[in-house]
Structures are given as structure tokens and as C-alpha cells.
Amino acid sequence: GERSGFEVVTVGNGGDGSRGPLARIGSAKPTVGKYSVDVQSFERLAFPELRACTDMRNAREPKLMVLDEIGKMELLSRDFYTHVKGVLDSNTLVFGTLPVARYGHTIREVEEVKGRGDVCVYTLTKANRDTLVDEVYEQLKRQVLSLAHIHTQHPPDTHKSDAQRPSEPVAVTQNTSTHTQMLTDTGAVGGSVAGRKRWKKSE
Q1: Helix, strand, coil abundance in the chain, percent, nearest 5
Q2: Which end of the chain is more exposed for a tag (fewer CB within 10 A), N or C?
Q3: How many other CB atoms are found less than 10 A from the CB of residue 118?
Q4: Beta bridge partner(s), residue 102
Q5: Cα angle: 119, vertex 123, 129; to 5 degrees
């Protein structure tokens, strides 16, 4: 069917996911392209997941956040990027996606994430997206095991120290003709997934 919008979907913490509208075709502000963005719905679902990954005081094992994506719709929220930076600076391992610059137009926040020393970016294309799966998986596995070892040796802290940082940062981006997926690093396993899902009209 024809795509009519996007949804915010959370997964994790026992597998019970929540969802709500992110954008629908419409003209109500704010808009991105032909879509009207529901910022309040996005913040209501995404912010608790982001906050949970920055509170490591009671963590018993590393956490992993899947974040799809750091894009124009999400960045319409004034506080979203602040929360993202908090997660990137925490002990949470982040696997995320970033949009590809189109027609030379870049997004400041996306460029900042890509330029971090603790972020590894993979650019995926139709030609390499299948062959990169194993490489990305192995990179994530190394980070998870490294963090699990760190957590057995040192109590969790709310921010990374040099001793806690994994030996290799992790991050992946997928690049298709219109949009890129990114893998990013920080450090931890177990928990939260926040993302958006294309919403199509039923047939």
C-alpha cells in the first residue's frame, strides 16, 4: 500500500513494546516534506528510553540501545539531541542510523555524531549491505564482550572513563540512495530499543 506516515516504536525491557505516531501525511506544523510530525508523541515514547540508558547506577550488565534514527523528524524536538548526547557519553552501547546528506545539505547534529572519536561509521550501499552484516555483527559482539568484562571488574559509572572505554569504538551507517544507516558506539547490553517504523495504509 501507499506509505502514509511513520510510527515511534519502543522494544525491550521484557519485550513489551509501545508505539505511537511520529508523522502522518498532512500540513499541520511542524512538517518534514509532506509529513506532519507529532513531536509530543515522539518525546513521550522516546525520552524515557533515552533517560534509562544514562542511569547506570543500578546496572548489573552492559546495555545496548538501537536508535533509528537521528534525523530531521526527531531533531524537531528541542531536547532530543541533548538526550542523545547523554546516551553517547554514558556506558551504553549504541547501534543507530543516520540520514545521508542530500544535495550537499548536512545536518549539524548528525555531523557532530559522525565526528566523535568514540563513534565508528559504516556506510552501507546496495552493493555492500549484505556483505557488511557479518563485519558489523562481529564489531558489536566484541564491544559487548569488552563491556561485559569491564562491568565484572569495575562498578558501573554514569560516565565513561578512559579505562572503561572499549578498545575500538563502534558505529555503523547504512547508505542507500536516499538515506544512510549508522552504527554508533558507546557502551552496554541488555536493554532498550527506540526506533521509527514506516506506516502504510492497509490494502
Answers
A1: 25, 25, 50
A2: C
A3: 18
A4: 105
A5: 125
The model's pLDDT over 120-148, given as tens digits with 9 standing for 90+, comes to 898 888 888 888 889 988 988 888 888 77
Q: Which residues contact 102 (CB under 8 A, 6 or more apart)?
A: 178
Q: Give Cα separations from 190 to 94, 148, 193, 202 (angstroms).
A: 11, 11, 10, 34
Cell of 142: 566484541
Instruction: Please give the residue that has the higher pLDDT: either 90 or 85.
Output: 85
**Cα dihedral 132/135/140/145 (nearest 10):** 170
Percent of the chain with pLDDT over 90: 39
Q: How confident is the model at residue 13 (pLDDT cuts 50, 70, 90)?
A: low
Q: In what order do the strands lie in the sheet with 192-200?
A: 31-32, 35-37, 18-25, 3-12, 192-200, 64-68, 93-96
The alpha helices in the chain, defined as continuous H runs, are: 39-52, 80-88, 108-114, 132-153
The Cα–Cα gap between 60 and 148 comes to 9
Q: Which three cell numbers stand for residue 164?
A: 572503561
**Bridge-partner residues for 37, per DSSP?**
23
Query: Residue 34 has what pLDDT?
Result: 96
Residue 5 Rama label (left phi>0; alpha psi -120 to 50; beta): left
